[in-house]
Design a protein that fits this description.
With about 110 residues, the chain is an alpha/beta fold. The chain is built from five helices and three strands. It is globular and about 40 Å long.
Length: about 110
């Protein structure tokens, strides 16, 4: 949707809903259970505790993920990406690989 149509309000409401429902899924809720990110910094400013996608998944030009970044995914159950339509196929594939790699490293 266009600017000002309430997308961020929907994200906020969904996060609150999921936070309340986390007890039914036996999630020990912390700030990493639901990661909220956006492709651009401008969109992140509208989301409480939001971070850019690059910051959230460790896409900072390095070839490898830090142990700290891998550990931050331990309790993650959901990743919400505002402006997901801006992502290229290549970036989505890279994001998928990072998430799968991080989860495998925890096993």
């Amino acid at each position: 949707g266009m600017d000002g149509t309430g997308k961020c309000e929907v994200i906020k409401a969904f996060v609150q809903f999921a936070k309340g429902m986390s007890i039914f899924f036996d999630w020990n809720y912390d700030s990493n259970v639901i990661k909220v990110s956006a492709y651009t910094g401008a969109a992140v400013c509208q989301i409480p505790n939001g971070r850019t996608l690059h910051s959230t998944v460790g896409l900072r030009g390095t070839k490898s993920l830090s142990q700290e970044m891998i550990d931050s995914w331990k309790s993650t159950k959901m990743l919400i990406i505002d402006e997901v339509s801006f992502l290229s196929e290549h970036l989505l594939e890279k994001l998928t690989n990072i998430c799968v790699y991080s989860k495998k490293k925890m096993m």
